[in-house]
Every structure is written in structure tokens, then in C-alpha cells.
Amino acid sequence: MSNKQVILTDNAPIPTSAYSQGLRFGNMLVTSGYLGTKMDGSGIVEGGFEAEVRQALNHIKAVVEANGASMANVVRVNVSLLDTGKFSAMDAIYKEYFSDPYPTRNTIGVAELWGGAQVGFDVWAYIPDEA
Q1: What are the strands, taking DSSP E only, across the chain?
Q2: Mean of the pLDDT values across residues 24-33?
Q3: CATH assignment of 4-126, given 3.30.1330.40, 1.20.58.760, 3.40.50.300, 3.10.20.30?
Q4: 0.90 cut: is pTM over it?
Q5: b/e per residue 85-97 (b: at least 16 CB within 10 A)
Q6: Per-residue pLDDT band at 1 (split at 50, 70, 90)
């Protein structure tokens, strides 16, 4: 992929291992998975589930915006939930970041996430030609 571009912004945690914050190829952006981690990567934010959801989505938003796009350009969201019983709480916050027409979404229950996190997100976004 000769047109693959690595995305790096100081507004999301800087990778400390073998991954990119996001990769852009042509007009598509794919982000890595983001948890509700502190910016320095030292662990999960305090404040419980809702704080984690917001922090993870803020990381996603930072990577998307680093490409001159917005959350309205997101076309696919993958959600990993430690407790699927918290789907409604996640969905209520999710609607603060996305609006109609909503992106397609896949939500799965997982047995474990890094650092004791309760939720994670990754997205695909379409980047407008002018960005």
C-alpha cells in the first residue's frame, strides 16, 4: 500500500509498542482500539464506566480530527464491552459523540481488556477530499 499514511497526534495516547494511532489510505482512516486510558498510558481513568467510555471516545475523536474530519465522518464503530449489561449506559454516551445517520456498529462482549478496562472502541472513517 504505497499511499498508507501513519497518523500521529499528541491529543491521543502516543503508541509505546508496535501499533499506529491510525492509518489512512486514500480517503479511509482506520483507528487502533482505544480504551479509557490516561493520556500518558499509565492506566485507566478514574470515575468508573461512564468516564472510561468518554475518555475512549475522546481518544478516537482526536485521531479522527487529526485528519481534518469529524465524528460525522465515521462509518463503522466496533465496541468491546466487558459487561454487555452496560450496553445501554454505553449507548447513551455514544449518542453524545455520534448523530443520525449513525455509523454501522458491532458490539461484542469480551472476557478481558488491557489494564482492567471495561470498554474499548475502534472506528473506520471517511475523510473528505478537502481534508
Answers
A1: 4-7, 22-25, 28-31, 34-35, 74-81, 104-109, 119-126
A2: 94
A3: 3.30.1330.40
A4: yes
A5: eeeebbeebbeeb
A6: very low
